[in-house]
């Protein structure tokens, strides 16, 4: 018996099928081997055709495995707020399955507004479980493009304007997803900061802006989050499409950051075989809309990284090492996901997931204004509550482009409020109409807008209080992929409607559902404003809980709300700076994005980054540091007290900003360097302890191409928002 086994082993080794002596399995399918051993072994057994096949799609959302060796295909799904419905093999049409209605989680702007990395982890775990249950290997998210302009139609899919906040929040999301044996796919790398002309617009920006503002969250995703895949973006950087951009993919991502996973193209983001082959793309997806067969004009075999790639390799124009590198990366991804040992089975639409979705929603809602303690409005306070606005009933999980979801359920704000207050106390009027949600197309509503407005004013007149629930939605030219907003003001006549309501009833709260800042011409006249994002399946419950006081709001804005569009940095420099001239866009504000601009240029925002009210009040003690002088490799230990001075329990996201008053280069007035979310009972006092590494006070030096910390004075400030500084402390870096 032993002799036979030994003989068999020799035979297998001799043919390259090295096997584990105990299991007789080839190394690549042996779970006890390391991923690298498995990759090397699998690669050694594959033909050139099989390797090339790994590098491109076989359907809309899947790419090849190695059928001969039993190495499975890769199945992907959007992302980033829920697991998308199944669609057909070769078209975007729904597959009409009955088992694919998911839990919708709040949009990532809301997650960022929680300032709570633990919730980000819970979010990642939950969505990862859903992806796993649905047998997905890659979840196409999270998105971390920086919020540069409120006109960007996709801001809702990202984590705001600050690179530090996004970096801290993205890592636990990725870890949560990947602990399920599902790869996260951080996107869109990089500079996809507008949808207008997204397929080709060439971004021109300084190295400082690139490294200090637009790359850090991706870097954190790779270096701290160990993300297994990255999606290239549609736009160009310095004349090369980002899905095959030598600087971004070869030099920064794969060399500097040592990314060992696979780069996936955005759908249709590849444009050239040589560039795709040589500039770092590993899996080409979505290049044509009907990739049917090798005979069809635009079949999958015609993808840039399919036959054309194979031919160039065969001709010797592309070295074999390039194919091997790509195939290794794809295999690594498969061994980390579909072929990983102990992969959990996942869970789908369960009470735990609803609870996570609700908690994120509740913690992300931001109370922007609350004159005379308008909120909370407990049950029983008013007899008649008028709820006005289309967003009180409209689905916010559908539309928006690729993040659209087919959900198991979605609690609307109106349903949530009726559940709390009782149907006898709530009257509803739509007030305005926006039309149907269509991809890439605007479909204005065909309704009598005056009749809608009149009906709303009529119920407002007789109500004790009005909740206006409006904002943007997921229609084209609103918060949606493929187009930017056309106006900064609220659309569909909402400003006019709010003014009309205010004429008959002053007791009005505005509840905004959006992923973007909007103009607020009525800001002084309404006593209360709530920023409520796209909150997913549990949105209505979360809104009702905050409004009635069951939950004390603790969200903080992850981006600044300008008073007028021109106050926003990108818009201060005219069209070339946004949206560009259709060929190029120039980031003329450089590193002064978001609050960095408002603070440095002393422009008052309408609502500042990091701002958000609570039903309680907090008193900040003076900031102190453990030492006065630090060397560049040390960590500054910061502490101050925080007291809940109000009558209700609540949470506060305390923030620490740093600045360098005298530097050899321009530095922003303030930059976020640490934050912590803390829950305090009424009257409770706690000492906050936060840390800032001295090396994180660096700027990107364009001359030396190094991160540089200059010696000298730095000022650290504890703050409740970017404009609400409580105290400061100076330290010296030697
Ligand atoms: C989007 C990606 C998305 C992909 C697949 C693209 O249009 O930009 O974010 O993951 O489609 O749906």
Strand and helix layout:
Elements: H1 2-14, H2 35-45, H3 48-53, E1 62-63, E2 74-78, H4 108-113, H5 117-133, E3 138-140, H6 163-178, E4 183-189, E5 202-204, H7 207-214, H8 216-223, E6 229-232, E7 236-237, E8 240-241, H9 246-256, E9 262-264, H10 273-278, H11 307-314, H12 320-336, H13 351-364, E10 366-370, E11 385-388, H14 413-421, E12 426-429, E13 436-438, E14 441-443, H15 449-461, E15 465-471, H16 494-504, E16 508-513, E17 528-531, H17 539-548, E18 584-586, H18 595-600, E19 618-620, E20 624-625, E21 629-630, E22 635-644, E23 650-659, E24 671-680, E25 685-693, E26 699-701, E27 706-708, E28 712-719, E29 725-733
Parallel strand pairs: 2-3, 3-4, 4-6, 5-7, 5-18, 6-9, 11-12, 11-15, 15-16, 16-17, 21-29
Antiparallel strand pairs: 1-2, 7-8, 10-17, 13-14, 19-22, 20-22, 22-25, 23-24, 23-28, 26-27, 28-29
This protein binds beta-D-glucopyranose (BGC).
Written description of the protein model:
A six-stranded mixed sheet has the order 1-2-3-4-6-9. Helix 2 packs across helix 12, helix 13 (351-364) crosses helix 17 (539-548) and helix 15 (449-461) packs parallel to helix 16 (494-504). By secondary structure, it is an alpha/beta fold. The chain is 26% helix and 19% strand. It has 18 helices and 29 strands. It binds beta-D-glucopyranose. The site of beta-D-glucopyranose has 8 residues, from loops. Beta-D-glucopyranose binds next to loops.
